[in-house]
Specification:
Blueprint lengths: L1 H26 L29 H5 L14 H15 L20 H18 L4 H15 L4 H29 L6 H40 L11 H14 L1 H11 L3
Helix pairs in contact: 1-3, 1-4, 4-5, 4-8, 5-6, 5-7, 6-7, 7-8, 7-9
């Protein structure tokens, strides 16, 4: 029973953070305060009662409808809360080579703010093809702050990773615009990569970007083949960068590099 206490706490707190993530994802693109007013129905304006605001359970008890005006409440709310809970739980899976090279004593807890920032960035990019600079900036600052605990060498590695990621992706975007007449990457993607570099170092973000390109190419190809994406139609790349960052955080760049090499031995 004692072994279940930590996972249960992570699930509960992760779901609560997921509830706040829903607020951030809705309000930040609309330039609204994420703290005031409190949660309310966008149709009738009534405040959500505290017992109706319990993650997932509140939505189920209300049968997905506002208590006051019966307007439907999107299924996305409990889905994001559940996803956040699972992501918080996944921090327990961080391997010996993961965690951005930070002290093992800080793991898995130090990964919680990382995943807490990545999730709203992914959702906002999916909705609006926009990666808020404020969230990316906080990600860089927090990443460098926690890197201080690993000493000067680790901090320098993570600072180089953040700076190189930003410069390389901005340069690639400018080059693609010159060659193709349109940017292949948004500046938000470069800032998200810098965010990842601040947490993973330059080796880690290089592997994360390789995973992002690989997964993005697969999804993009499927989208083109099925007609869901038109030729040269852009699609958000931020979710793939975030996925790469999280996968490298959990397993470490060395593990992924070994898997890559193993794939060529067959």
């Amino acid at each position: 029973m004692e072994g279940l206490i930590v996972p249960l706490w992570l699930i509960m707190f992760g779901a609560c953070v997921g509830s706040f993530t829903n607020v951030v994802v809705w309000r930040l693109p609309r330039q609204e305060s994420v703290v005031h007013p409190g949660s309310h129905c966008p149709r009738c304006g009534h405040a959500v009662r505290w017992h109706d605001n319990v993650p997932v359970l509140g939505w189920l008890l209300l049968a997905g409808r506002c208590r006051d005006c019966s307007a439907p409440i999107s299924w996305r709310y409990p889905l994001v809360e559940s996803l956040s809970a699972l992501l918080w739980l996944s921090t327990l899976l961080v391997g010996s080579g993961g965690g951005g090279g930070l002290e093992p004593s800080l793991l898995p807890w130090i990964g919680l703010p990382l995943v807490g920032l990545l999730l709203p960035l992914v959702l906002i990019d999916l909705d609006h093809m926009w990666l808020p600079e404020s969230l990316c900036r906080w990600g860089v600052l927090l990443g460098l702050l926690v890197s201080v605990t690993g000493g000067v060498t680790l901090l320098a590695d993570h600072m180089i990773g953040a700076a190189l990621s930003l410069m390389v992706l901005e340069a690639l975007s400018a080059l693609a615009e010159q060659v193709m007449g349109q940017p292949a990457l948004g500046l938000g993607d470069a800032k998200l990569a810098a965010f990842g570099g601040a947490w993973l170092g330059w080796h880690g973000i290089a592997i994360a970007m390789a995973l992002a390109v690989f997964s993005g190419a697969i999804v993009g190809s499927i989208g083109r083949l099925t007609g869901r994406l038109k030729p040269r139609q852009p699609f958000p790349f931020g979710p793939f960068i975030a996925l790469g960052i999280w996968l490298v955080w959990l397993m470490g760049p060395g593990w992924w590099w070994n898997q890559w090499l193993a794939g060529f031995t067959f």
